């Protein structure tokens, strides 16, 4: 049980690193939350600080989810601790996959509600992608393909993120029940919960999409002169 709590706490603290805020302040002297959409995420970083800062933030956010799922989740085994059997609703779940999911989900939660930034963070999409790459790369690669197609066809990052998050559990179901791949049931359940949480986090974007006034990505160059106007 101690190992379980340590994994969750460390993953949350890692996820809480407010990458876009720190990158903006350290390299540009800008608080990303005061410009553009006001969101402390990679999309707003691309829009306000340009593609270099956006790529840096994206890679770090991706690494947060991957590190939590792939490495921190294994602390119980490394230290010789005994992780408890995972039984939910009378069904025993594969412990390793479950712990990777829990660690990754904690990192995503930290990204969305960061301890170091008054619990106001990003939408969690890229951190969630990193988590899933640390568990099952095929379905997340398909989901990212969906993201790219929707993004380049619509220019709406929010719509691409929502669609990709919805498609991921669907791809898992297809792999497991349509193609008979050994996908653990806990991965489907928890990924669906994480995807739902991320979609709910996009509620303001969904409202703007319905109203027809959601921002499109038009350029990956820094906003420069527009910083003080947004």
Strand order of the largest sheet: 1-2
**Alpha-carbon Rg, integer:** 18 Å
Mean pLDDT: 82
Quickly count the helices: 11
Helix percentage: 55-70%
In whole angstroms, how far apart are the ends? 48 Å
SS strand fraction: under 5%
**What are the segments in which pLDDT stays under 50 over at least 5 consecutive residues?**
none
Indicate how many domains the architecture comprises: 1
> What structural class do you assign from the helix and strand content?
mainly alpha
SSE pattern: HHHHHEEHHHHHH
Main β sheet profile? 2 strands, antiparallel
Shape: globular
Please tally the β strands and state the result.
Answer: 2
Summarize the structure.
This protein is an all-alpha fold. The protein is built from eleven helices and two strands. It has one domain (2-215).
What does this structure look like?
It is built from eleven helices and two strands, in the order αααααββαααααα. The protein has 230 residues and is mainly alpha-helical. The chain has one domain (2-215). α3 runs antiparallel to α4 and α4 packs across α7. The protein starts with a helix and ends in a 19-residue tail after the last helix.
């Amino acid at each position: 049980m101690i190992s379980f709590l340590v994994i969750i706490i460390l993953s949350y603290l890692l996820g809480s690193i407010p990458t876009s805020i720190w990158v903006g302040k350290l390299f540009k002297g800008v608080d990303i939350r005061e410009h553009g959409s006001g969101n402390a995420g990679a999309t707003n970083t691309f829009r306000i600080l340009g593609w270099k800062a956006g790529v840096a933030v994206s890679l770090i956010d991706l690494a947060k989810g991957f590190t939590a799922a792939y490495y921190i989740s294994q602390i119980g085994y490394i230290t010789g601790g005994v992780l408890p059997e995972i039984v939910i609703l009378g069904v025993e779940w594969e412990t390793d996959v479950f712990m990777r999911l829990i660690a990754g989900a904690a990192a995503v939660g930290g990204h969305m509600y960061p301890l170091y930034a008054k619990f106001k963070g990003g939408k969690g999409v890229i951190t969630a992608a990193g988590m899933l790459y640390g568990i099952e790369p095929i379905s997340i690669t398909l989901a990212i393909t969906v993201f790219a197609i929707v993004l380049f066809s619509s220019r709406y990052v929010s719509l691409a993120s929502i669609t990709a998050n919805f498609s991921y559990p669907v791809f898992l179901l297809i792999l497991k029940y349509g193609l008979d791949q050994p996908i653990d049931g806990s991965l489907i359940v928890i990924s669906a919960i994480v995807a739902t949480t991320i979609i709910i986090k996009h509620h303001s974007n969904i409202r703007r999409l319905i109203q027809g006034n959601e921002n499109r990505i038009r350029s990956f160059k820094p906003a420069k002169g527009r910083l003080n106007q947004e």
